[in-house]
Amino acid sequence: xxxxxxxxxxxxxxxxxxxxxxxxxxxxxxxxxxxxxxxxxxxxxxxxxxxxxxxxxxxxxxxxxxxxxxxxxxxxxxxxxxxxxxxxxxxxxxxxxxxxxxxxxxxxxxxxxxxxxxxxxxxxxxxxxxxxxxxxxxxxxxxxxxxxxxxxxxxxxxxxxxxxxxxxxxxxxxxxxxxxxxxxxxxxxxxxxxxxxxxxxxxxxxxxx
Length: 209
Prior knowledge:
Blueprint: H1 6-22, H2 27-38, H3 42-59, H4 64-71, E1 74-82, E2 90-91, E3 94-95, E4 106-114, H5 117-129, H6 135-138, H7 166-186, H8 201-204
Antiparallel strand pairs: 1-4, 2-3
């Protein structure tokens, strides 16, 4: 990897910020990013990160700052599904909005990474520098976290986006399937549409790098 410039770190920050803006799931990360940006000396912090990374690339050793950031890695647990008790606001298919529930029984949870913003920026930088080389190998049939590639060059094309907007890619995936089914029906063929949702996919997948 070539030298990490401050401009490259700033681009990573801009794209990461756009990702957080369009992702409405991790509210904790939104709050964390707002606090990070609210503090004075944003350019100074980004410049220090660039210097630390260049030091690592030249020596192969983590300095104290990077080591401390990594040691702060943690995760947070969010409720994913609540049990539908007799006191629940939801009665069969009817949602009663004016009924107050004191206690909720959590049946399943979701774990997500929680760590310093700098670690998120390093991950974003990896996507900008190395992740783009995997884009063609993944193919265009993968719609989640799809990179907005430049049409002619091996780099991200959108000015600020890190990933294409998920809801737009989801609509594209859905519409292409329906269009393909309609084409078969128009040709006189029978069609069966099956949609599968792999339960707890990200927590059940073991990736072999």
